[in-house]
From TrEMBL:
<protein>
    <recommendedName>
        <fullName>UDP-glucose 4-epimerase</fullName>
        <ecNumber>5.1.3.2</ecNumber>
    </recommendedName>
</protein>
<keyword id="KW-0119">Carbohydrate metabolism</keyword>
<feature type="domain" description="NAD-dependent epimerase/dehydratase">
    <location>
        <begin position="4"/>
        <end position="250"/>
    </location>
</feature>
<comment type="similarity">
    <text>Belongs to the NAD(P)-dependent epimerase/dehydratase family.</text>
</comment>
<keyword id="KW-0520">NAD</keyword>
<dbReference type="GO" id="GO:0003978">
    <property type="term" value="F:UDP-glucose 4-epimerase activity"/>
</dbReference>
<dbReference type="InterPro" id="IPR005886">
    <property type="entry name" value="UDP_G4E"/>
</dbReference>
<comment type="pathway">
    <text>Carbohydrate metabolism; galactose metabolism.</text>
</comment>
<dbReference type="GO" id="GO:0033499">
    <property type="term" value="P:galactose catabolic process via UDP-galactose, Leloir pathway"/>
</dbReference>
<dbReference type="InterPro" id="IPR036291">
    <property type="entry name" value="NAD(P)-bd_dom_sf"/>
</dbReference>
<dbReference type="Pfam" id="PF01370">
    <property type="entry name" value="Epimerase"/>
</dbReference>
<keyword id="KW-0413">Isomerase</keyword>
<dbReference type="InterPro" id="IPR001509">
    <property type="entry name" value="Epimerase_deHydtase"/>
</dbReference>
<comment type="subunit">
    <text>Homodimer.</text>
</comment>
Length: 333
């Protein structure tokens, strides 16, 4: 039996694939390579290049391979972009997710892990954010994930699907010096800061310093991509008990944009010029996770909890591969 990983060539998906293979699982990656990289996909995984919008192609993957579990990463994932291009999220993300869920039900694949997000909680009035915090998505992106979570809820009730919705806070860091984050265009804070450190950009623009936070810049809970991967492995195994669940995934530590820049200066030894610009639409002031539930229930234990650990691994990747996967020679083994 195989695990189907959509978006398995992407930043988080490819890290999870690597971990699944290490644990001896058979993996089929389904990815349209619009954002992902062939050279990020572990050599022992089967890579099928295809688009979730094509229901026939999705069905054919289930007919060809013996799939009993699904991890669904493939998605548009940017809060800011979703405020500009809502239909990429409210239409494409939903339609692609539905094609996948329909095929899974038709082919009796009954364990499903969904990449969900802290953006479900919009502008939360309590911190840290637990799984009980009220849901009021902060953007079309967050809304698309909320809707997919609800669809899974109903497939659990009506079709015996068992699911885990994993609500990531800010994924960061690199899985290894040859396996890291490479987006085009890059919009995330840590890789942009490191591109400034490398001299690929002149400066980092801080999106607003008048938020209600200790230094006025936004506070986020950064979680290492390998710790995220570990949570997926634990959740996949746990679902064998037939019980669906939702988990928040973060370290419970909030770092401001200024603190991220300062830590990156310490890690890299570079100056990293910064200036303050306008706020970015859709950004909440503070997002910090309470991830006690997955720690208690599944024994999740993050190995890279500090910001300097996270930034150090990302820096090793950026220094070795300043142009990302263009300079990676082969698929990882
Ligand atoms: N930021 C800047 N300047 C930049 C880029 C980012 O100041 O050039 C700030 C943002 O305003 C934000 C923080 O840095 O306050 C982090 O921004 P990112 O773009 O790195 O990440 P987001 O918090 O916007 O979003 C990420 C993922 C989403 C996920 C969310 C959950 O991209 O998919 O974390 O917290 F939903």
């Amino acid at each position: 039996m195989s695990t189907l990983v959509t978006g398995g060539a992407g930043y988080i998906g490819s890290t999870v694939v690597r971990e699944l293979i290490r644990q001896g699982e058979d993996v089929v990656v389904f990815d349209n390579l619009s954002q992902g990289h062939r050279k990020a996909v572990h050599q022992d995984a089967t890579l099928v290049v295809g688009d979730l919008a094509d229901a026939g192609a999705v069905d054919s993957v289930f007919r060809t391979y013996d799939i009993d579990a699904i991890m669904h990463f493939a998605s548009h994932t940017l809060v800011g972009e979703s405020m500009e291009e809502p239909f990429l999220y409210l239409d494409t993300n939903i339609r692609c997710g539905l094609n996948l869920m329909r095929a899974a039900v038709e082919h009796d694949a009954d364990r499903f892990i969904l990449s969900s997000t802290a953006n479900l909680f919009g502008l939360p009035d309590e911190m840290p954010i637990t799984e009980e915090t009220s849901i009021d998505p902060g953007s079309p992106y967050g809304e698309s994930k909320r809707i997919l979570e609800r669809y899974l809820h109903w497939l659990d009730r009506t079709r015996g699907m068992t699911f885990a919705a994993l609500r990531y806070f800010n994924a960061a860091g690199a899985a290894g010096p040859d396996h890291g984050e490479d987006h085009d265009p890059e919009t995330h804070l840590i890789p942009i800061v490191l591109e400034v450190a490398l001299g690929q950009r002149d400066e980092i623009v801080i999106f607003g310093d008048d938020y209600d936070t200790p230094d006025g810049t936004c506070v986020r809970d950064y979680i290492h991509v390998r710790d995220l991967a570990q949570a997926h492995i634990l959740a996949l195994r746990a679902l064998k008990d037939g019980k669906s669940r939702v988990y928040n995934l973060g370290n419970g530590n909030g770092y401001s944009v200024r603190e991220v820049i300062e830590t990156a200066r310490e890690v890299t030894g570079r100056e990293i010029p910064a200036r303050v610009g306008d706020r970015r639409p859709g950004d909440p002031a503070t997002l910090i996770a309470d991830a006690q539930r997955i720690r208690d229930e599944l024994g999740w234990d993050p190995q890279f909890p500090t910001l300097s650990d996270i930034i150090s691994t990302a820096w090793d990747w950026h220094v070795k591969h300043p142009d990302g996967y263009a300079s990676v020679s082969e698929r990882p083994s």
